[in-house]
Design goal:
Elements: H1 3-13, E1 15-17, E2 23-24, E3 36-37, H2 46-53
Bound molecules: zinc ion.
């Protein structure tokens, strides 16, 4: 598997602490204990496009 593919798959599962920006798989930052967030955008919502077309 190409390295860039590996990195993409890896980053998909990563979460990021919103306070200290530590990357982790956990829902709570192992460094500061703050909740982590998924840095990737949510799936595209086709309903938004429908409004724009009208
Ligand atoms: Zn943190």
């Amino acid at each position: 598997m190409p390295l860039d593919k590996v990195n993409t798959e890896f980053s998909k599962r990563m979460r990021r602490c919103s306070v200290c920006w530590t990357y982790t798989f956990r829902e709570v930052c192992p460094r500061c204990g703050s909740p982590t967030t998924d840095p990737h955008p949510k799936p595209f919502n086709p309903a938004a496009l429908t409004r724009n077309v009208e």
